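Quick one:
INPUT:
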């Protein structure tokens, strides 16, 4: 294994850990939301905003309250199903990338790439340092994975020519 392959493998492992972490975070979030079933979520959100001394009329606290209302109105079964599907995809990606498989790279590139148009639209509406950093990080990961797939295809073609 040469230096480039070793570096690529390390990057794949980093992405695998990152994707796996997102999958397990989705599961933890689902359990957290599930624990709030019999609570007034909007009241809890207002309490948190007050605890941190934030103004509920500012952008992020207002956005937090909107999401609290959305969660309160969404059927629990829908939240759990979405969280389970998201976690399944992320954990499958992590396993595929960790094992250095083509299907893992394809799954990660496609699932990461599908966010890019939404991130661009968000940047066009309201560009912040955080949203730009998220976009660039996601774009770097997707680009890396596409390059990996290209090299994999190229090397598989050479293997078939030799045989």
């Amino acid at each position: 294994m040469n230096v480039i392959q070793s570096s690529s493998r390390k990057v794949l492992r980093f992405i695998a850990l990152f994707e796996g972490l997102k999958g397990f975070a989705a599961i933890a979030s689902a359990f957290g939301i599930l624990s709030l079933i019999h609570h007034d979520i909007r009241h809890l959100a207002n309490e948190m905003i007050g605890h941190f001394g934030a103004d509920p009329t500012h952008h992020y606290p207002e956005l937090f309250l909107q999401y609290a209302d959305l969660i309160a109105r969404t059927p629990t079964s829908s939240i759990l199903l979405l969280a389970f599907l998201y976690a399944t995809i992320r954990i499958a990606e992590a396993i595929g990338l960790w094992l250095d498989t083509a299907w893992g790279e394809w799954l990660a590139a496609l699932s990461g790439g599908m966010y890019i148009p939404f991130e661009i639209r968000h940047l066009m509406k309201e560009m912040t340092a955080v949203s730009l950093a998220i976009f660039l990080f996601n774009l770097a990961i997707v680009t890396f994975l596409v390059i990996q797939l290209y090299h994999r295809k190229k090397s598989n073609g050479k293997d078939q020519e030799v045989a």
